[in-house]
Every structure is written in structure tokens, then in C-alpha cells.
Amino acid sequence: MQYRNFGKSGVKVSDIGYGAWGIGKSMWIGANDVESLRSLTAARDAGVNFFDTALAYGDGHSEQLIARAFGRSPDVIIASKVPPKDSVWDVKAGDPLQKTFPKKYVLSCLDLTLKHLCRDRIDIYQFHTWHDDWALDPEWQETVREMKASGKVRLAGISIQNHQPANVLKALDTGLIDSVQVIYNIFDQSPEDELFPYCEQHGIGVIVRVPFDEGALTGKLTPETRFPDGDFRHHYFRGNRRQDVWDAVQAIVRDTGITLDQLPELALRFCLSAAAVSTVIPGMRNVHHVAANVAASDAGPLSPDVLLKLCAHRWVRNFWH
After folding, report:
1. Least confident among 105-114, 234-243, 254-263
2. How far apart, in Å, are the Cα atoms of 88 and each of 166, 201, 225?
3. Which CATH class is domain 3-218+266-303?
4. Is residue 50 a contact partner of residue 9, using CB atoms and an 8 Å limit?
5. Is there a contact between 62 and 23 (Cβ–Cβ < 8 Å)?
6. What CA–CA distance (Å, rounded) separates 96 from 114?
7. Residues 6 or more apart in contact with residue 162 via CB below 8 angstroms
């Protein structure tokens, strides 16, 4: 396992982290607590020290599983998130902060997360959606300062709204935010345009989520794949998207000369090839996922030639229609 600086915080994190959405049993069908606990332990045993969860993942179930697996062990770094109060994840310009992250609500959620984790302090506490209209709001700035001053939060972060990587730059300009979490993968390369250069220049930690594009880049999604009702992928891959993904994946295979079985490692190594990235957090609900994901760390970044080929597979999609 390889480790990287988490921005300028002084924290060292495994470059492959553990994304704990899937073990929360919310919107992902098929999670099993016994297997989830095995995967958490296997990840730590393999050198993973970064675990990303959220209060919204099963109403704290994911957080509680992490506590069961690790207790108060100081050798794991835990990041969690405060959900929007109004449960609106796709925030629009002009939406008031007070509907989403009023100070009293944020601080109460922080206390609940700490209770679930059985800890007095969390390493990274993130806003679980964001709009940059809020960056200069005095209440938000006061909330961040109070979280840190209380000793309950070591670092403050923002989990950026889906596919909007530049919708955080004003918040970063305040100097209050230590990390960002963003979607980045072979298909969605947009963080490279503005966000990554900013983070490198200013020492902001970068957590990459959705490295497999919700399963599209695992090589296992076919035009015939079906997801059960209640699984969010049923909507994500609606209409002709499964066929579109299959065609796009086949083009990657042709251009790089890999097999479908090698695609997940290629996808992770693509993310690790960006110097701005601190850690990548694939989901790994079983020990087999852990072993496969951890292997990408030791394989390291991709060669410039392969990266150049993958640049051509940037895929600009409209996720809202």
C-alpha cells in the first residue's frame, strides 16, 4: 500500500481508501453486515487507513459498522459528512444555506456522528452537498470555525455536488476548507480543468469518489444488466445508458489493449495518476473487492502513453435528463 500527503494537513493517507456508502444498506441492495465487517478488517490489514462514511449512509449504519470494526483505534483516519437538512442533494443557485446547513443542525449532526463512531473527534467532517453561493455566508463560516475550535473536527471538507467540480472554488478561497471530495474517473475527467490545479497550488486534500462510474468501469455492466427496484443504479443506468456504457467500455479495451477483467485496476490507476489526488475511495463490500482494489495501489500510476489514450475517452454526458 502506498501513502500520500492529505493536502498540507500533515496527515498521511493510503492512496486507496474505503468508500463506505455500500455497507450502509441505503440505496445499494445486497449488503451484509457480517461480510461488511470482514471487508473493513481486511482493508485495514492490507494497509488501508482511510475510511469515508456519512450520516446519510443508512441513517448512521455505515458509521456504526466502522465503530464496530475499529473501536477507537488511532491508526484509522475517518471522514464523515453532514447531510442536507431538507434532503435536497442537487442544490440550485439561490437556495438559502439555512434550508440545507443551518449552524445548529450541522453541529447536532456532528454530535450524532461522533456518537455512532464512539469517538470524541473526527478527522475530516464534510458538507455532503454544496453550492458556492454559500461561501461568503457568515453563518457557514462561523459553523466551520466553531467545528474546529470545539476540538471535535480536525479538518473540514466539502463533498462537491455530482459532476460540478468547479462549484467549490469560492469556498476554497476562504481558507476554511482543508479537503474536497469529487467524482473523477476515466469518463468524467472534468476535475482536471480547474479543481485539481487549484488544490495542488493551495494544498487542499482531494478525495476521489465514483472511480468506477457506479460500476460502468468494472467491465461487468452489459446491455442486459438489470438492477432491483430501490437500487439507485436502476435509475442511473436507465434508458439506453447500459448500451452506451458497453460501447464506451469496448472502445477503451480496444485502445489500451487490456481485457475486461483488467478494467477495474486501470480505472483506479487512472485516478491515482493525478498528482492532486490524495486518496481514491472505491466501494468494497467484500474481501475480494478489497484485494482487487488494494492491488492497484502497488501497481502505481499509469504510463504517459496510456494516460494519453484515456484522455480521448472523456465522456461528457447529461445526467439530468
Report:
1. 234-243
2. 20, 32, 29
3. alpha beta
4. no
5. yes
6. 27
7. 90, 183, 319
pTM of the model: 0.94
Query: What is the pLDDT at residue 214?
Result: 82
Measured CA distances, 156 to 44, 182, 224, 244, 279 (Å): 24, 15, 42, 37, 16
Residue pair 207/52 in contact (Cβ under 8 Å)? The answer is yes
C-beta separation of 64 from 36 below 8 A: no
d(CA 166, CA 159): 12
Please identify which residue in the block is written with the cell numbers 457557514. 140
Calculate the CA 18 to chain-centre distance: 9
> Is 258's pLDDT higher than 50?
yes
Strand partners, 209: 183
Cell numbers that stand for 313 in this block: 475517452
Q: What is the average pLDDT score of the chain?
A: 93
Pick left, alpha or beta for residue 28 (phi over 0 → left; psi -120 to 50 → alpha; otherwise beta).
beta
CA 56, CA 21: separation in Å to the nearest integer? 9
State the residue for C-alpha cell 480521448.
312
Could you tell me the residue ranges of all domains in the chain?
3-218+266-303
Taking only the tens place, the pLDDT of each residue in 51-96 is: 999 999 999 999 999 999 999 998 999 999 999 999 999 999 999 9
Cell numbers given for 136: 461568503
pLDDT digits (tens, 9 = 90+) for 268-306: 999 999 999 999 999 888 899 899 999 999 999 999 999
Q: Which residues contact 178 (CB under 8 A, 6 or more apart)?
A: 7, 9, 124, 155, 156, 157, 204, 205
